[in-house]
Design a protein that fits this description.
Structural class: alpha+beta
Strand content: 15-25%
Shape: elongated
CATH architecture of the largest domain: 3-Layer(aba) Sandwich
Number of strands: 18
Radius of gyration: 45 Å
CATH class of the largest domain: Alpha Beta
Distance between the termini: 112 Å
Length: 414
Amino acid sequence: MQTKEMMLNLVKEQILLWGNKLDQSNINEVTEAIQSQLKLLDSLREAIFLSEDNRIYENSASGGEEDSHEENESTITSPSVNSDELNREDELVSVADEVSIEKPVKSPEAKLEKEKRVPEKLHEENIENGLVVRGYFTQKVRGGVVHKKQQVFVPESIARKLNLKTGDFVECTRYGFKGSRPQHNFEIIQRAEKTPPKEREEISCLVIKYHEDLKRLYIELDDPKQEFPIPILISDADIAQYHLQEGDIVTYAHEIGNVQKGCVIWRHPIEDAITKENTKTSTSKEIKHKAVKKKTVKKRRYLPIFEGINILMIGGTNRGLHKTIQPEVESRSGNFRYLSGDEKETTMKARIKKADLVIVFTESISHHAMWQAKSYIKQFHKMHSFTKNMGPEAFVRRASILKKKMLEKEVISV
């Protein structure tokens, strides 16, 4: 029984050592250590040991161990233990029993509330080679994708219908193919916990226009930093997908901070001004009045960026560009002058001398007139630009650049 006595004394020593280390900063650590020693005592109580004469000694609740100790008192020696230490040990054991680290039991309502507050972290899955794909949705400039690796495409119409946001957990079930492209049904499993950052910028209710010079459809985006709108050409892919034409109203989306990298994501249906119900109740005179009545278009007001500046345009007669460019210049308080290139040399000389800015269309005048214009521009040191062809907006943009250079030149000369 010497081995058992040694183990008991070792447990006592460990309990005393941990008790001496106890303070406010390590209550949990010390409690766990003492509990481990108490568990060891439980194991020793049930353990069976053999003495040197092969007699069996058992720990029992009836006190058999005490009797066996008395019988072998002469043969078994144990380390001397101070009575104060034993008393201190008893105190520590009783404290450990009282402060058994039992965590407060939470009510089922509290657990349910915590589960609602903290959504379960879901894992992306690919089941049966793409038949069912579960993953997080990521919004793109048009539509979006589900699953980081599988990249299942979600059309813009579905993303709008389900109001999908980046971070939503979505299940995609494939039901067939359209050509080589798989078709899916989509279902939201869990909404994103936090509001995701914007992945794109959307601009709604833009009217598609037709560019006479480029023969292309385009839209205009207002920019508060510039004095005129930014034209964006519509891609052939967008035209084919949405069957776009002049006058359609669309929503355009682009990357944050880059209006050129974008596409049309929606075409809005244009409702008739007269509904069927109104048609039934309205008289023929009212219908005729509505059909004849013209919409008043509010003209846009432009900044007077050309105020006090004489702008001379030479050429462009074959397309009648001066007729569309003149109102654009005058709406910005500029003085517009025009020469076809067929005028007398004295007239051209006088006009160029009075002009502040000169823009020459080289494809619309003769070589002789072009060289004459070039000579007088150089003679009178006029700010100028030569171009083959450009529309009204490009003309305004070019004139604005020339004006800026002219003002910089004046500042340097002063």
